[in-house]
Specification:
By secondary structure, this protein is of the alpha/beta class. The chain has a single domain, classed as Undecaprenyl pyrophosphate synthetase, CATH 3.40.1180.10. The protein has helices at residues 35-41, 46-66, 86-92, 95-109, 125-138, 154-170, 181-185, 233-245; strands at residues 9-10, 16-18, 27-31, 71-78, 113-117, 145-152, 198-201, 220-223. The strands form two sheets. The protein has a six-stranded parallel β-sheet, with helices on both faces. Helix 1 (35-41) crosses helix 2 and helix 2 packs parallel to helix 4 (95-109). The two termini are 22 Å apart. The protein binds ligand V0D.
């Protein structure tokens, strides 16, 4: 049997020279963990790690664009993150504006469309305005769909979906016979997206942390100890290459 060629090749200097186009995940979800620890290991305050994480975001978005990934969903702020010290929360909630100020032209040039999942109504006005501006500006782009999970928690999303579905049933807008998995998915924040094919978590922890619980039912998981600010295009391609090697069975044989 012929050897399978690797999909992603590198020159000596790590520059990517070849990209795959078969069995590339269409939708990738990422938990970008390890920013605070990255900073603390350097004797820096945690917020310095979050700031450093911004440049990794744009690097990985561009790598995903190159691989023709259709959607990338990044966990930026969870419903549990409010429990952190107020100064850290305030700092984190300024990051979208800072990110967009620097990188929005880059994202436009890459034909990226920005969207959000999660309860953005509870975020400060300055955060919402920055994100809304970016969504409006990128509305007509038809390349990569970049979803930022902001004030997102999966159990909260599921409860909201159940309540909305109950209301529709009660109002006669929906009949019990039409309730199935596919219809239920329409009530989730991810209604416009296929389920993720691949979940990447950086930073060494191996848990879901209330991320996309319904949507990840059949997803391949890939974990790395690399901290998010140290995560490179090469690490990302390695995750894609391992994904490609796995035989997906959806519970069958
Ligand atoms: C902190 C590492 C980009 C993970 C990356 C509000 C945690 C940096 C955004 C962003 C955060 C969000 C929306 C948008 C544009 C950019 C972001 C937050 C945290 C929480 F339209 N990075 N980023 N948002 N981190």
């Amino acid at each position: 049997m012929a050897m399978k060629l690797p999909f992603f090749k590198y020159k000596e200097d790590d520059e990517t020279v070849q990209y795959g186009d078969g069995n590339t995940p269409e939708h990738i979800a990422i938990i970008m963990d390890g920013n605070g620890r990255w900073a603390q290991r350097r004797g820096m305050p945690r917020f310095a790690g979050h700031k450093e994480g911004l440049s990794t975001v744009v690097k990985i978005v561009k790598a995903a664009v190159k691989c023709k990934v259709k959607a990338l969903t990044l966990y930026t702020f969870s419903t549990e993150n409010w429990k952190r010290p107020k100064s850290e929360v305030d700092f984190i909630l300024r990051l979208p504006k800072e990110f967009l100020h620097v990188y929005l032209p880059d994202l436009m040039a890459n034909n990226v469309r920005i969207k959000t999942i999660g309860d953005i109504e509870k975020l400060p006005l300055h955060t919402r305005e920055a994100v809304q501006y970016a969504m409006d500006r990128t509305r007509d782009n038809d390349g990569l769909q970049l979803n930022f999970a902001l004030n997102y928690g999966s159990r909260h999303e599921l409860l909201n979906a159940m309540k909305a579905m109950y209301t529709d049933l009660n109002d006669g807008k929906l009949s019990w016979d039409d309730v199935d998995e596919q219809h239920f998915s329409c009530y989730l924040d991810t209604a416009d997206l296929p389920d993720p094919d691949l979940l990447i978590r950086t930073g060494g922890e191996k848990r879901l942390s209330n991320y996309l619980l319904w949507q990840l039912a059949y997803t391949e998981f890939w974990f790395t100890d690399v901290l998010w600010p140290d995560f490179t295009e090469k690490d990302f391609f390695q995750a894609l290459e391992e994904y490609r090697q796995r035989k997906r069975r959806f519970g069958g044989l």
